[in-house]
Amino acid sequence: MIGPLISGSRRLSLGKRGWLRSHKWWLLRRFSQITLLGLFMLGPWAGIWIVRGNFAASDIARLVVLADPYIVVQGIFGGAIHAWPVLSGAAVITLAYLVLGGRAYCGWVCPVNIVTDTAFWLREKTGLTRDRKLDRRSRLVILAGTLFASALTGAVAWEFVNPVSLLQRALISGIGFGWSIILAVFLLDLFVSRRAWCSHLCPVGAFYGLIGRGALVRVSATRRSACTDCGACFNICPEPHVIVPALKGQGSPLILSGDCQNCGGCIDACPVDVFQISTRRPWLQTGAAE
Ligand code: SF4
Ligand code: SF4
């Protein structure tokens, strides 16, 4: 099972707009996440090396080097002097997320998101409601902790426990420590707290959330006057606090928080088409409108 077939949050949209329109963005995200993971796995599994490396650092056809800026920053804190291809690879990724939304990484790239979405789907299916309150600022504390640990140890500290890297290693080796971490994340999201990992604890999401504050691509509550207060968007959203100012405020209908993953879940779930993908255009808008 890799995600929802019919989840509770989409029930109203499903009845009104049909399966495809209520799952469009979910389908696109899964396609993106599985394709990217598949590209990394083609080499180790089938000997087809289009992409070498992992989500931390990779090269495409030995031509383009890409690097996760969070890894690069940890390296710098650890005292590493990065080579130019690594720095430019990190700059390319940073620029991409400055356009697409930093946490588009979480919704569209990270394979662990498939695991946490599945836990969320199971919670809805089974009616599990236990939701131990976690402070979403915890991830910023963990982020600062990883930088401190990198400075202290001279290593890229988060990589020792990073579920994203461990998942990839586990898929290559078949067994290992990685599966335990992935299982722990899954059980945490299922039994302890709603969206515990991605929305409260993961420092990778916190890092990309900081980048995403200035991003151009945004979800907009363009038709907010049509809202019926059904709550479906808040139910499905991994970061529901981001919706309130755009949907209920008097200012811009754009969702401007860096925490928004641009996942399109609210677009899928809303039965009256309040949301759409849009862009912020500061060079065309002024003051409160933006
Ligand atoms: S506001 Fe919409 S696009 Fe943003 S994280 Fe929530 S569901 Fe996803
Ligand atoms: S925007 Fe309003 S109508 Fe649409 S899902 Fe959210 S609460 Fe329901």
From TrEMBL:
Q: What UniProt keywords apply to this chain's record, in alphabetical order?
A: 4Fe-4S, Electron transport, Iron, Iron-sulfur, Membrane, Metal-binding, Repeat, Transmembrane, Transmembrane helix, Transport
Task: Classify the source by domain of life.
Answer: Bacteria
Spell out the GO cellular component terms annotated for this protein, sorted alphabetically and separated by semicolons: plasma membrane
GO molecular function annotations of the record: 4 iron, 4 sulfur cluster binding; metal ion binding
Gene3D superfamilies (UniProt xref): 3.30.70.20
Q: Which NCBIfam families match?
A: napH, PRK09477.1
Know the name of this protein?
Quinol dehydrogenase
Naturally occurring in which organism (per UniProt):
Paracoccus kondratievae
Gene encoding it?
napH
